[in-house]
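Worked example (supplementary).
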Amino acid sequence: MRAIYILWLRELKRYARSRSQVIASLGQPMLYLLVLGFGLGSVFQKAGMGSYLQFIAPGIIGMTVLFSSIFSGLGLLWDRQFGFLKEMLVAPVPRLEIMIGRTLGGMTVSVIQGMLVLVIALIVGFRPVSWWHLPIAIGFMLAISLVFAALGVAIGSSLQDMQGFQLIMNFLVMPIYFLSGAMFPLAGQGWPLKIATRIDPLSYGIDGMRAVLLGSSTFSPVLDIAVLICVGAVLLVFGAYRFSKIEI
Amino acid sequence: MIEVRNLVKTFGAFTAVNDVSFSVAEGEIFAFLGPNGAGKTTTIKMLTTLLHPTSGSIRLDGLDPLKQQNEARKKFGIVFQDPSLDGDLTAAENMEIHGVLYGVPHKVRRQRTEELLKLFELWDRRDEQVKKFSGGMKRRLEIARGFLHTPRILFLDEPTLGLDPQSRNQLWTHVKKVNEAEKVTVFLTTHYMDEADRVAHRIGVIDHGKLVTQGTPTEIKEQTGTTTLEDAFLKLTGETIRDESASSTDMMRQFAKMWSGGKR
Ligand SMILES: Nc1ncnc2c1ncn2[C@@H]1O[C@H](COP(=O)(O)OP(=O)(O)O)[C@@H](O)[C@H]1O
Ligand SMILES: [Mg+2]
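After joint prediction of all chains, the assembly is encoded as:
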């Protein structure tokens, strides 16, 4: 337990200390929120879809949590590069505990990031259907972060060095984002896109957040949370397995 | 305390450790000497559960580090050849994490951290981020951290690399102290033959992955008919310079193994 706690704390300290990184990682969602939210707002409205800012805010929050949690897992590559991974791996602590501590830390950081974007969205005019739904939305952020922090650990344990990073970004993380319905409604697509969006776990996270924050969704929020938890559990087991196999 | 039988490690077609056998008794200081790329670090990685041997057997205090990983890890401490600190954390925080991971009780942790950081002259800088430290300071912190808990076996992989003579002296004095006072078994590698001559009870010489000879420093000098360990070493391993820097084939190897995961 102590090991889990100290490694969780390590992630938080590193986050708190990388102030420039915090600002940089909030800059992108803020830009999306403002430029897309207001820029595409009139087109969206003319199409009879309501306010685009309202629609896109949960998507941008989902994006923030996705990036932040998957990077926390891929941070293993940095730990490997700078050598701290060795220190963790020879410690007389079950590797499962080390992986859990790190992953919980990454999840905490990404939910904090998600909440900061939520605050920014509220400042620029986003309004949830009920303020009482905010804690449930945070619950969805946590579920999204579970899925992708676990995926990040699985990938970070499997890659040997940083060279694979760009590949992962271009062929995994960006598609997950674009296919998730973060930017466009999930209803009314051709079947290829429809299948792709249904495979993407982030779709369910963002749909769930729309359900609680906007009161409208494509799937049911119960299905959303069930899918996230199941996929998260499977990925966590897989990530723990990959992590236990790391050699240096 | 350490029993190694017919240990082999291959990376693809390359054999880094080739049929090595030796044993180190409890309370002994054993120096593992060899030119760059001889296979010393690879051997230590296998002994410390970081790498799976291709074949052969290892026992640490009777435990198999392959099957009883966690029990085996409780037996040893290690100072790595390569950096292993968290640069974003402070010196004190690096010590703290180590102490918690190794289950050192809070009070002992505080007290020993202070002693060790003072000994290696880092106490005044304890609340600074490690990435701001000089190379020598980082190295000293790695060593201080290695002494925070008292293991049964201590692995030191080129611990004096990049240290000034004062710190080197501190280190070997401390190693001798824990060896004598607490009967800690020490397995070390170094490129400084005078150090090995001074502290080691027994020495093993490895070259191209093969153990060339082992014995006490005196035995090895007698064997080779030399007066210094340095001459004995040169006689055993030849005078050609070994270069282990990354060549283009190295880079290709790196690239190929990128996706191969932990298997290799
Ligand atoms: N992961 C690896 N993949 C391929 N070759 C490796 C790997 N690790 C070490 N080697 C090679 O094994 C040899 C022994 O390396 P090492 O044990 O680090 O030597 P030493 O510590 O004695 O200087 C070197 O030629 C090195 O290039
Ligand atoms: Mg080495």
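Two points are worth noting when inspecting this output. Chain B has a mean pLDDT of 90. Residues 37 and 89 of chain B are 32 Å apart (CA to CA).
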